[in-house]
Amino acid sequence: MNLKTLITHSVQYNHWVVNKYIDWLATKSDEQLNQEVISSFSTILATLHHIWQTQEYWWSYIAENNDFNPSENSTTLTKDEIFSGIKNNSEKLMKYIESLSEEDLVKNVKIESQWFQCDFSKYEYIQHIIIHGTFHRGQIVTMGRNVGITDAPMTDYNFWNIYKDADVIIRN
């Protein structure tokens, strides 16, 4: 398997998993999604907002447009705005990565921000987005258990990889 296929599968998986989580969490009450628990972020919605904003941040560098404008604080956005934002971003990221060549993926992008400086390949930044989202989705499952949500969907990469061609599992 080449790098292009691996990274493309990774962003397709990420898009699928984001949609699975949003579909799952859309069935939960606003009270549950906004109930404070001890975690990196105080609520499930705040955690989703963070995942979305982080994807947007890295997207701006990967796409080399550097136009990241953080949205409002998660407490001023509705559940639907956060759900829509993260879904739209993961689709935008997936379509963009699908359009890149292997040469594009290995291209380095220098970042100089107020927090750090680095010069890594696009595919490494893409890996970071996927790993970061996975980390926080794991937190959401734990947070959910603390607020009475115990029916998290199966979202393991292996599950997606086995069934991705059998169904319309990637895009839905």
From TrEMBL:
It comes from Chryseobacterium fistulae. The keyword Acetylation does not apply. Gene3D superfamilies: dinb family like domain (1.20.120.450). A divalent metal cation binds at residues 50, 132, 136. InterPro entries: DinB (IPR007837), DinB/YfiT-like (IPR034660). Keywords: Metal-binding. SUPFAM superfamilies: DinB/YfiT-like putative metalloenzymes. Belongs to the DinB family. Signal peptide: none annotated. This is Damage-inducible protein DinB. One of its GO terms (molecular function) is metal ion binding. The keyword Metal-binding applies.
